[in-house]
DNA sequence: AAACAAGACAACCGCAGCCAG
DNA sequence: CCTGGCTGCGGTTGTCTTGTT
Protein backbone atom coordinates (compact mmCIF):
# COMPACT_ATOMS: atom_id res chain seq x y z
CA UNK A 1 0.00 0.00 0.00
CA UNK A 2 1.75 3.06 -1.13
CA UNK A 3 0.87 6.65 -1.23
CA UNK A 4 -2.32 7.67 -2.83
CA UNK A 5 -1.96 7.65 -6.56
CA UNK A 6 -2.85 11.29 -6.88
CA UNK A 7 0.15 12.18 -4.81
CA UNK A 8 2.40 10.98 -7.57
CA UNK A 9 1.06 13.45 -10.01
CA UNK A 10 3.19 16.36 -10.82
CA UNK A 11 2.36 20.01 -10.61
CA UNK A 12 -0.01 19.53 -7.74
CA UNK A 13 -0.13 22.36 -5.34
CA UNK A 14 0.45 21.78 -1.69
CA UNK A 15 0.21 23.90 1.36
CA UNK A 16 -2.31 26.48 2.26
CA UNK A 17 -5.30 27.03 0.06
CA UNK A 18 -5.81 30.34 -1.62
CA UNK A 19 -9.19 32.05 -1.63
CA UNK A 20 -9.36 31.40 -5.33
CA UNK A 21 -8.88 27.70 -4.85
CA UNK A 22 -11.45 27.69 -2.11
CA UNK A 23 -13.89 29.40 -4.36
CA UNK A 24 -13.34 26.97 -7.17
CA UNK A 25 -13.81 24.01 -4.93
CA UNK A 26 -16.79 25.52 -3.23
CA UNK A 27 -18.45 26.42 -6.48
CA UNK A 28 -17.85 23.03 -7.92
CA UNK A 29 -19.19 21.09 -4.98
CA UNK A 30 -22.06 23.46 -4.58
CA UNK A 31 -23.09 22.87 -8.14
CA UNK A 32 -22.18 19.26 -8.63
CA UNK A 33 -21.55 17.65 -5.30
CA UNK A 34 -18.21 16.08 -4.67
CA UNK A 35 -18.92 12.72 -6.22
CA UNK A 36 -15.65 10.95 -6.70
CA UNK A 37 -13.04 13.00 -4.92
CA UNK A 38 -10.30 11.95 -7.23
CA UNK A 39 -12.07 13.64 -10.10
CA UNK A 40 -12.98 16.77 -8.21
CA UNK A 41 -9.74 18.69 -8.67
CA UNK A 42 -9.73 18.10 -12.39
CA UNK A 43 -13.34 19.05 -12.82
CA UNK A 44 -13.02 21.99 -10.52
CA UNK A 45 -9.90 23.23 -12.21
CA UNK A 46 -7.66 22.79 -9.24
CA UNK A 47 -4.05 21.75 -9.11
CA UNK A 48 -4.67 19.66 -6.05
CA UNK A 49 -5.12 16.03 -5.35
CA UNK A 50 -8.57 14.76 -4.54
CA UNK A 51 -7.51 13.93 -1.08
CA UNK A 52 -6.51 17.48 -0.43
CA UNK A 53 -9.81 18.71 -1.85
CA UNK A 54 -11.75 16.38 0.35
CA UNK A 55 -9.87 17.49 3.40
CA UNK A 56 -10.33 21.11 2.55
CA UNK A 57 -14.03 20.62 2.11
CA UNK A 58 -14.52 18.62 5.23
CA UNK A 59 -12.41 20.73 7.51
CA UNK A 60 -12.95 24.15 6.11
CA UNK A 61 -15.54 24.74 3.42
CA UNK A 62 -18.40 22.58 4.52
CA UNK A 63 -21.35 24.88 5.06
CA UNK A 64 -22.44 23.27 8.27
CA UNK A 65 -19.22 23.92 10.07
CA UNK A 66 -19.50 25.72 13.31
CA UNK A 67 -16.51 27.93 13.45
CA UNK A 68 -15.30 29.87 16.38
CA UNK A 69 -14.09 28.87 19.78
CA UNK A 70 -15.25 25.78 21.53
CA UNK A 71 -17.65 26.37 24.34
CA UNK A 72 -16.94 25.02 27.77
CA UNK A 73 -19.73 22.54 27.24
CA UNK A 74 -18.17 21.31 24.07
CA UNK A 75 -14.84 20.93 25.74
CA UNK A 76 -16.41 19.00 28.57
CA UNK A 77 -18.19 16.80 26.11
CA UNK A 78 -15.00 16.14 24.24
CA UNK A 79 -13.32 15.11 27.45
CA UNK A 80 -16.17 12.82 28.31
CA UNK A 81 -16.29 11.30 24.89
CA UNK A 82 -12.56 10.87 24.83
CA UNK A 83 -12.77 8.98 28.06
CA UNK A 84 -15.14 6.61 26.36
CA UNK A 85 -13.91 6.53 22.81
CA UNK A 86 -10.26 7.32 23.10
CA UNK A 87 -8.62 8.96 20.13
CA UNK A 88 -11.46 8.20 17.79
CA UNK A 89 -11.77 11.75 16.72
CA UNK A 90 -14.22 11.08 13.96
CA UNK A 91 -16.61 9.44 16.39
CA UNK A 92 -16.18 12.24 18.84
CA UNK A 93 -16.76 14.74 16.09
CA UNK A 94 -19.93 12.94 15.14
CA UNK A 95 -21.35 13.92 18.51
CA UNK A 96 -20.40 17.53 17.99
CA UNK A 97 -22.25 18.79 14.93
CA UNK A 98 -20.37 21.44 13.13
CA UNK A 99 -17.04 20.38 14.48
CA UNK A 100 -14.50 18.37 12.59
CA UNK A 101 -12.33 15.59 13.82
CA UNK A 102 -9.31 17.63 12.91
CA UNK A 103 -10.54 20.56 14.89
CA UNK A 104 -11.28 18.44 17.90
CA UNK A 105 -7.98 16.66 17.62
CA UNK A 106 -6.14 19.94 17.52
CA UNK A 107 -8.07 21.24 20.47
CA UNK A 108 -7.30 18.15 22.42
CA UNK A 109 -3.62 18.14 21.67
CA UNK A 110 -3.09 21.82 22.12
CA UNK A 111 -5.46 22.76 24.86
CA UNK A 112 -7.45 20.12 26.64
CA UNK A 113 -4.53 17.86 27.36
CA UNK A 114 -2.78 20.68 29.06
CA UNK A 115 -5.81 21.70 31.03
CA UNK A 116 -6.33 18.20 32.30
CA UNK A 117 -2.74 17.86 33.32
CA UNK A 118 -2.94 21.13 35.16
CA UNK A 119 -5.81 19.64 37.07
CA UNK A 120 -3.75 16.59 37.85
CA UNK A 121 -5.61 14.36 35.47
CA UNK A 122 -3.99 12.08 33.03
CA UNK A 123 -5.50 13.06 29.68
CA UNK A 124 -5.20 9.55 28.37
CA UNK A 125 -6.45 7.52 31.26
CA UNK A 126 -8.69 10.26 32.62
CA UNK A 127 -7.53 9.32 36.03
CA UNK A 128 -5.60 11.39 38.53
CA UNK A 129 -1.93 11.34 37.86
CA UNK A 130 -0.06 9.60 40.60
CA UNK A 131 2.18 11.89 42.58
CA UNK A 132 5.20 9.69 42.17
CA UNK A 133 4.69 9.15 38.52
CA UNK A 134 6.03 11.26 35.75
CA UNK A 135 2.94 12.83 34.34
CA UNK A 136 4.17 13.02 30.83
CA UNK A 137 5.52 9.55 30.77
CA UNK A 138 2.46 8.07 32.33
CA UNK A 139 0.03 9.88 30.20
CA UNK A 140 1.78 9.13 27.01
CA UNK A 141 1.94 5.46 27.69
CA UNK A 142 -1.69 4.85 28.30
CA UNK A 143 -4.84 5.26 26.36
CA UNK A 144 -8.41 5.42 27.39
CA UNK A 145 -10.49 2.33 27.04
CA UNK A 146 -10.77 1.27 23.47
CA UNK A 147 -13.14 -1.30 22.19
CA UNK A 148 -11.52 -1.91 18.89
CA UNK A 149 -8.48 -0.61 17.24
CA UNK A 150 -8.98 0.95 13.90
CA UNK A 151 -5.34 0.72 13.13
CA UNK A 152 -3.22 -2.26 13.69
CA UNK A 153 -0.31 -0.14 14.68
CA UNK A 154 -2.12 2.09 17.07
CA UNK A 155 -0.32 0.54 19.92
CA UNK A 156 3.00 1.24 18.42
CA UNK A 157 2.65 4.91 19.02
CA UNK A 158 3.54 6.65 22.19
CA UNK A 159 0.05 6.00 23.40
CA UNK A 160 -0.23 2.35 24.10
CA UNK A 161 -3.74 1.13 24.63
CA UNK A 162 -4.74 0.26 28.08
CA UNK A 163 -6.77 -2.85 28.55
CA UNK A 164 -10.34 -1.93 27.84
CA UNK A 165 -12.48 -1.68 30.86
CA UNK A 166 -15.30 -4.17 30.85
CA UNK A 167 -18.55 -2.46 31.47
CA UNK A 168 -21.56 -3.80 33.18
CA UNK A 169 -24.65 -2.05 32.03
CA UNK A 170 -26.48 0.08 34.47
CA UNK A 171 -29.82 -0.94 33.08
CA UNK A 172 -29.72 -4.40 34.50
CA UNK A 173 -27.72 -6.41 36.90
CA UNK A 174 -26.56 -9.00 34.49
CA UNK A 175 -22.92 -9.35 33.89
CA UNK A 176 -23.18 -8.70 30.21
CA UNK A 177 -20.06 -7.04 29.01
CA UNK A 178 -20.12 -4.15 26.65
CA UNK A 179 -17.30 -2.39 25.07
CA UNK A 180 -17.14 1.21 26.15
CA UNK A 181 -18.20 2.31 22.72
CA UNK A 182 -21.12 -0.02 22.59
CA UNK A 183 -22.18 1.04 25.99
CA UNK A 184 -21.91 4.63 25.11
CA UNK A 185 -24.15 4.40 22.12
CA UNK A 186 -26.54 2.07 23.81
CA UNK A 187 -26.84 4.58 26.54
CA UNK A 188 -27.20 7.47 24.21
CA UNK A 189 -29.95 5.91 22.19
CA UNK A 190 -31.95 4.37 24.93
CA UNK A 191 -31.98 6.83 27.75
CA UNK A 192 -35.11 8.84 28.00
CA UNK A 193 -37.19 10.61 30.53
CA UNK A 194 -36.48 11.86 33.96
CA UNK A 195 -34.16 9.06 34.90
CA UNK A 196 -31.60 10.11 32.36
CA UNK A 197 -29.59 12.20 34.72
CA UNK A 198 -29.11 9.46 37.21
CA UNK A 199 -28.34 7.00 34.49
CA UNK A 200 -25.87 9.38 33.11
CA UNK A 201 -24.13 9.76 36.41
CA UNK A 202 -24.04 6.04 36.67
CA UNK A 203 -22.84 5.68 33.15
CA UNK A 204 -20.08 8.14 33.55
CA UNK A 205 -18.97 6.59 36.76
CA UNK A 206 -18.32 3.41 34.89
CA UNK A 207 -15.64 5.15 33.02
CA UNK A 208 -13.91 6.44 36.06
CA UNK A 209 -14.49 9.99 35.09
CA UNK A 210 -13.16 11.13 38.34
CA UNK A 211 -11.99 14.32 36.82
CA UNK A 212 -15.54 15.49 36.65
CA UNK A 213 -15.42 16.90 40.11
CA UNK A 214 -12.47 18.94 39.06
CA UNK A 215 -14.35 20.76 36.40
CA UNK A 216 -15.85 23.90 37.79
CA UNK A 217 -19.57 23.83 37.82
CA UNK A 218 -21.80 26.11 39.75
CA UNK A 219 -24.35 23.42 40.32
CA UNK A 220 -22.84 20.23 41.62
CA UNK A 221 -26.18 18.53 41.71
CA UNK A 222 -26.54 18.88 38.02
CA UNK A 223 -22.93 18.36 37.27
CA UNK A 224 -23.01 15.26 35.23
CA UNK A 225 -26.33 15.92 33.66
CA UNK A 226 -25.41 19.35 32.56
CA UNK A 227 -22.09 18.36 31.29
CA UNK A 228 -23.45 15.59 29.22
CA UNK A 229 -26.75 17.05 28.34
CA UNK A 230 -25.32 17.79 24.97
CA UNK A 231 -24.38 14.27 24.16
CA UNK A 232 -26.83 14.48 21.37
CA UNK A 233 -26.66 16.85 18.47
CA UNK A 234 -28.78 19.92 18.18
CA UNK A 235 -32.49 19.44 17.79
CA UNK A 236 -32.56 20.32 14.21
CA UNK A 237 -30.16 20.34 11.36
CA UNK A 238 -31.18 22.55 8.52
CA UNK A 239 -29.60 20.43 5.87
CA UNK A 240 -29.03 16.81 5.40
CA UNK A 241 -25.39 16.84 4.46
CA UNK A 242 -24.04 14.40 2.02
CA UNK A 243 -20.66 14.23 3.57
CA UNK A 244 -19.81 11.10 5.32
CA UNK A 245 -19.29 10.28 8.90
CA UNK A 246 -21.71 12.69 10.43
CA UNK A 247 -24.82 11.28 11.91
CA UNK A 248 -27.04 14.22 11.24
CA UNK A 249 -29.88 12.09 10.12
CA UNK A 250 -29.94 10.31 13.40
CA UNK A 251 -29.56 13.59 15.15
CA UNK A 252 -32.50 15.08 13.41
CA UNK A 253 -34.53 11.97 13.97
CA UNK A 254 -33.66 11.98 17.61
CA UNK A 255 -34.60 15.57 17.94
CA UNK A 256 -37.81 15.32 16.03
CA UNK A 257 -38.76 12.31 18.02
CA UNK A 258 -38.96 14.50 21.04
CA UNK A 259 -37.09 12.14 23.24
CA UNK A 260 -33.75 13.72 23.47
CA UNK A 261 -32.13 15.52 26.27
CA UNK A 262 -32.86 18.70 24.53
CA UNK A 263 -36.56 18.66 24.47
CA UNK A 264 -36.53 21.34 27.07
CA UNK A 265 -34.38 23.41 24.84
CA UNK A 266 -31.66 23.41 27.41
CA UNK A 267 -28.79 22.18 25.43
CA UNK A 268 -26.19 24.82 25.25
CA UNK A 269 -24.72 24.77 21.78
CA UNK A 270 -22.76 27.79 21.05
CA UNK A 271 -22.29 29.70 24.22
CA UNK A 272 -20.17 32.36 22.73
CA UNK A 273 -18.20 33.41 25.70
CA UNK A 274 -17.39 30.01 27.02
CA UNK A 275 -13.93 28.68 26.67
CA UNK A 276 -11.59 30.61 24.57
CA UNK A 277 -12.29 34.21 24.02
CA UNK A 278 -13.39 35.25 20.63
CA UNK A 279 -10.48 36.52 18.69
CA UNK A 280 -12.46 38.08 15.94
CA UNK A 281 -11.19 41.46 15.13
CA UNK A 282 -12.79 43.19 12.18
CA UNK A 283 -9.76 45.32 11.66
CA UNK A 284 -7.51 42.37 11.38
CA UNK A 285 -9.45 40.04 9.17
CA UNK A 286 -7.25 37.86 7.15
CA UNK A 287 -8.00 37.86 3.50
CA UNK A 288 -8.55 34.18 3.47
CA UNK A 289 -10.84 34.22 6.43
CA UNK A 290 -13.08 31.22 6.36
CA UNK A 291 -16.42 32.09 4.92
CA UNK A 292 -18.05 29.41 6.95
CA UNK A 293 -16.72 31.07 10.04
CA UNK A 294 -18.01 34.39 8.98
CA UNK A 295 -21.34 33.05 7.93
CA UNK A 296 -23.99 33.13 10.48
CA UNK A 297 -24.37 29.92 12.32
CA UNK A 298 -27.70 29.25 13.91
CA UNK A 299 -26.13 27.43 16.77
CA UNK A 300 -23.90 30.32 17.55
CA UNK A 301 -26.54 32.95 17.23
CA UNK A 302 -26.85 33.70 20.83
CA UNK A 303 -27.69 32.45 24.20
CA UNK A 304 -31.15 31.34 23.41
CA UNK A 305 -32.39 28.84 25.88
CA UNK A 306 -35.55 26.95 26.49
CA UNK A 307 -38.52 28.31 24.69
CA UNK A 308 -36.38 30.93 23.13
CA UNK A 309 -34.39 28.25 21.54
CA UNK A 310 -37.36 26.50 20.08
CA UNK A 311 -38.98 29.66 18.92
CA UNK A 312 -35.92 30.93 17.24
CA UNK A 313 -34.97 27.66 15.76
CA UNK A 314 -36.97 27.81 12.60
CA UNK A 315 -35.83 31.34 12.11
CA UNK A 316 -32.29 30.31 12.66
CA UNK A 317 -32.65 27.52 10.21
CA UNK A 318 -33.91 29.88 7.64
CA UNK A 319 -31.09 32.23 8.32
CA UNK A 320 -28.66 29.43 8.21
CA UNK A 321 -29.84 28.16 4.89
CA UNK A 322 -30.05 31.62 3.52
CA UNK A 323 -26.65 32.56 4.67
CA UNK A 324 -24.90 29.50 3.49
CA UNK A 325 -26.67 29.82 0.23
CA UNK A 326 -25.54 33.35 -0.08
CA UNK A 327 -22.04 32.41 0.83
CA UNK A 328 -22.09 29.68 -1.72
CA UNK A 329 -23.24 31.89 -4.49
CA UNK A 330 -21.52 35.10 -3.81
CA UNK A 331 -17.92 35.98 -3.83
CA UNK A 332 -15.73 35.00 -1.02
CA UNK A 333 -15.36 37.03 2.06
CA UNK A 334 -15.76 40.68 2.32
CA UNK A 335 -15.73 42.79 5.34
CA UNK A 336 -19.43 43.09 5.00
CA UNK A 337 -19.47 39.59 6.30
CA UNK A 338 -18.57 40.96 9.66
CA UNK A 339 -21.88 42.27 10.71
CA UNK A 340 -23.37 42.70 14.04
CA UNK A 341 -26.18 40.40 14.89
CA UNK A 342 -28.65 43.19 14.43
CA UNK A 343 -27.28 43.94 11.04
CA UNK A 344 -27.45 40.33 10.12
CA UNK A 345 -31.04 40.11 11.20
CA UNK A 346 -31.87 43.11 9.13
CA UNK A 347 -30.08 41.61 6.21
CA UNK A 348 -31.96 38.41 6.74
CA UNK A 349 -35.26 40.19 6.59
CA UNK A 350 -34.35 41.84 3.35
CA UNK A 351 -33.07 38.68 1.82
CA UNK A 352 -36.28 36.73 2.01
CA UNK A 353 -36.81 37.40 -1.64
CA UNK A 354 -33.82 35.40 -2.61
CA UNK A 355 -34.40 32.69 -0.10
CA UNK A 356 -36.24 30.36 -2.40
CA UNK A 357 -33.68 30.71 -5.07
CA UNK A 358 -30.88 29.80 -2.73
CA UNK A 359 -32.91 27.02 -1.30
CA UNK A 360 -33.27 25.54 -4.70
CA UNK A 361 -29.58 25.81 -5.30
CA UNK A 362 -28.89 24.00 -2.11
CA UNK A 363 -31.40 21.35 -2.85
CA UNK A 364 -29.69 20.67 -6.09
CA UNK A 365 -26.28 20.91 -4.57
CA UNK A 366 -26.85 18.56 -1.74
CA UNK A 367 -29.31 16.25 -3.34
CA UNK A 368 -31.75 16.71 -0.58
CA UNK A 369 -35.24 18.02 -0.45
CA UNK A 370 -35.37 20.62 2.22
C1' DA B 1 11.58 47.12 18.50
C1' DA B 2 13.49 42.70 17.87
C1' DA B 3 14.05 37.97 19.00
C1' DC B 4 12.32 34.06 20.75
C1' DA B 5 8.79 30.81 22.57
C1' DA B 6 4.40 29.01 22.79
C1' DG B 7 -0.04 28.32 21.03
C1' DA B 8 -3.41 27.59 17.46
C1' DC B 9 -4.65 26.01 13.34
C1' DA B 10 -4.31 23.99 8.69
C1' DA B 11 -2.62 20.58 5.92
C1' DC B 12 -0.01 16.47 4.81
C1' DC B 13 1.29 11.60 5.34
C1' DG B 14 0.67 6.89 5.67
C1' DC B 15 -2.12 3.22 6.74
C1' DA B 16 -6.33 0.24 6.76
C1' DG B 17 -10.81 -0.94 5.15
C1' DC B 18 -14.10 -1.24 1.55
C1' DC B 19 -15.50 -2.51 -2.85
C1' DA B 20 -15.80 -3.07 -7.75
C1' DG B 21 -13.68 -5.39 -11.54
C1' DC C 1 -9.60 -14.85 -4.39
C1' DC C 2 -6.76 -11.09 -5.93
C1' DT C 3 -5.79 -6.46 -7.21
C1' DG C 4 -6.06 -1.67 -7.43
C1' DG C 5 -8.63 2.54 -6.71
C1' DC C 6 -10.82 5.23 -3.43
C1' DT C 7 -12.09 6.91 1.04
C1' DG C 8 -11.67 7.69 5.91
C1' DC C 9 -8.97 8.03 9.87
C1' DG C 10 -5.41 9.33 13.17
C1' DG C 11 -0.73 10.95 13.78
C1' DT C 12 2.38 14.29 12.64
C1' DT C 13 4.34 18.35 10.71
C1' DG C 14 4.35 23.01 8.98
C1' DT C 15 2.99 27.73 9.24
C1' DC C 16 1.14 31.68 11.12
C1' DT C 17 -0.20 34.40 15.13
C1' DT C 18 0.28 35.95 19.65
C1' DG C 19 2.61 36.61 23.86
C1' DT C 20 6.83 37.28 26.47
C1' DT C 21 11.41 38.78 27.40
Automatic annotation (TrEMBL):
The segments labelled Disordered in the record are: 119-159
Compartmental location: Nucleus
Which Pfam family is one of those matched by this entry? Myb_DNA-binding
Domain called HTH myb-type: residue spans: 9-61, 62-116
Q: In terms of one coarse class, where is the protein primarily found? A: nucleus
Q: Does the keyword Transcription regulation apply?
A: yes
A GO molecular-function term, please?
transcription cis-regulatory region binding
Keyword annotations for this protein, in alphabetical order, are: DNA-binding, Nucleus, Repeat, Transcription, Transcription regulation
| GO CC, one annotated term | nucleus
Question: Which InterPro entries does the UniProt entry name for this protein?
Answer: Homeodomain-like_sf, Myb_dom, Plant_SW-associated_TFs, SANT/Myb
Q: Which domain of life is it from?
A: Eukaryota
Residue span(s) of domain Myb-like = 9-61, 62-112
Gene3D superfamilies from the entry?
A: Homeodomain-like (1.10.10.60)
Q: What is this protein called?
A: Transcription factor MYB61-like
Q: What is the lineage of its organism?
A: Eukaryota, Viridiplantae, Streptophyta, Embryophyta, Tracheophyta
